[in-house]
Design brief:
heterodimer; A: alpha/beta; Rossmann fold; 13 strands; B: 431 residues; alpha/beta; FAD/NAD(P)-binding domain; D-Amino Acid Oxidase, Chain A, domain 2; 3 domains; eight-stranded mixed beta sheet; seven-stranded mixed beta sheet; 17 strands; globular
Chain lengths: 271, 431
Amino acid sequence: MHIVVCVKQVPDTKIIKINPKTNTLDRRSAPAILNPYDAHAVQAAVKVKEEYGGLISVLSMGPPQAVEIIKKSVEIGADGGYLITDRAFAGADTLATSYALFKALDRISKDKPIDLIICGKHAIDGDTGQVGPGIARRLDIPPITNVIEISDIDLKIRKVRVKRKIINGYERIETGLPCLLTVEKEINPIEYSPLPNMIRAARYQPVIWAVSDLDEVDRTQLGLKGSPTIVGKMFTPPKPEGGHVLEGTPSEQAGQIVEVLLKNKELFSVN
Amino acid sequence: MPEKFDVIVVGAGPAGTSCAYTCAKNGLKVLQIERGEYPGSKNVMGGVLYRKQMEEIIPEFWKEAPLERPVVEQRFWMMDKESAVSFGYKGLEWAKEPYNNFTVLRAKFDQWFAGKGVEAGVLLINETVATECIVEDGKVVGIKTDRPDGEVYADVTVLADGVNSLLGKQLGFHKEFRPDEVALTVMEVINLSKDKINDRFNLEDNQGCTIEIFGDSTKGNLGTAFIYTNKESINIGVGTTLSSMISSRMKPYDLLDYLKNHPMVRNLIGGGEPAEYLAHLIPEGGYHSVPKVAGNGVLVVGDAAQLVNAIHREGSNMAMASGRMAAETIMEAHQAGDFSHEFLNAYRDKLYDSFIIKDLKKYKNATHVFEHNPQYFKEYVPMLNRAASKFFTVDGSSKKTKQKQIIKTMTSEKGTIKLIKDVYKAWKAVK
């Protein structure tokens, strides 16, 4: 079983500052980290491997320093990884990114066919969640988003059963392999990596590919050229105003809340 | 089967990295373990890096290392409540190669330095705590870490795990510190524009200034405060022995606030934006506190070996030199295939034969004398300020009369014999 996890290097948005003049992220102000959802995706792959065996490869597109997140993935338990890095990829939106990753996956699958692709549900810098489904569409395989459990994999009949989060509940889905899953953090906690993994990661050198290493690439679909997205305006959302702060003891406050809710029934109507 | 290395270095501060780098550069298989998220993330010092000992490890490091400013001026203040007697030296020869020392931000510098180690072949593992040494037949053969399958082996384990060396304690090399053997230093990095720093400290872009402050900076307790200029920030901090802090019931952050609001200090940092707050223990026990530094399969370097000269605020340079000496001994041991205590003791000899232990020996009683004679910081510093004020105030009386009056106040306040005794005692402690 060959699992590929797509990972992205992102600025740590917990610490990042926003340039008040340009309204863009000041990327120097925050360290670059493995997108937290992708870390859970790698951990999910490790769990699958523990149960069903196989090989875990990670794939990333980014600047040369993104090798760090591939090493980080090896710490978590990936067997190896690929970084596609090239000036031609620069400025890519989700459409161009999913095309580039699709081409890289195509190349990887020529060496060893891919059974399962796992992505984080979205990257914390862009929050779009489009790249995973974009890859699945191009590969013509089923995408299942917001997965919170990989319940069962049957390699004989090539089926996977998962649980996915939806508003007000969850659904259980069965689909055929290969497929693409995007995962929520709830899928698993990140485990403390064993020391041998840490040592292997410190030594590990990922495979690095440029555009020329990929097959039959349509360069017009790459990078800025292949990105139809236009950012019209960026702004910091204004701080919410108004509101009402309740006072009194906790039980008095609870009483006040009930009163407010009873007066404004639309506040808790279910759509 | 756990892996075996030639050397395991515990800690990625200046001592550990100097040792790891030197060993790897000479072809040894080195594993370096760091508990922080990255090297430097948990390391604290006032911020002065000396050129000489760093250069002995990486020649011309100033061409690529992330340094702040070369120090061209060193000032010393004997500070009272609303005054200070100061002296210092400024020399522009320090603004050029080969320089004397630099201000640095440790989070950046240590990361760079450890990166040089990795380039040389060191395997660096972050976010991992070495919990104990593995001892077999009286010999240290490796370490256990807090990770699953966390055992790893080596011919030599180097303890560069800092002031509170847990592994050194585990091996019985040193005991828990007494509160008078360690200082607690707290500091802030305050962001301030380059132009403001240059104006306030009379500097140009590539020039730095250090100020060491005694007296009221610690409310008369044994310790010092410091103000160092970075490129676009200022390090300001204060430290006293833990014992003074306990006996005077001071809180370290209160002391730092007191310093920041002191009329002699506040305008230097005014309008700045606090960016970081750091605190750390500093080993200041000196010569008498240096523990056993070599054993079967194990060496101790840097703060873990208590190598700090508190009087001259030197520590990182001693750390680096000790790391390099340890590496040299390990290479000799590797060649001889002998990692016994007897062989590794060559490191101890190197240490004791170098400026490190010689300097610590010179001041071996200084901390003790000042600790037990609080009059130096509590009484003499204010007295010196009063004398200077009197001498420099133009009030119509002759200079000769003023001198007489000053000597008279001093001797009547303290008594001539006591005064002479104190001067002698202080001189003896630092001679």
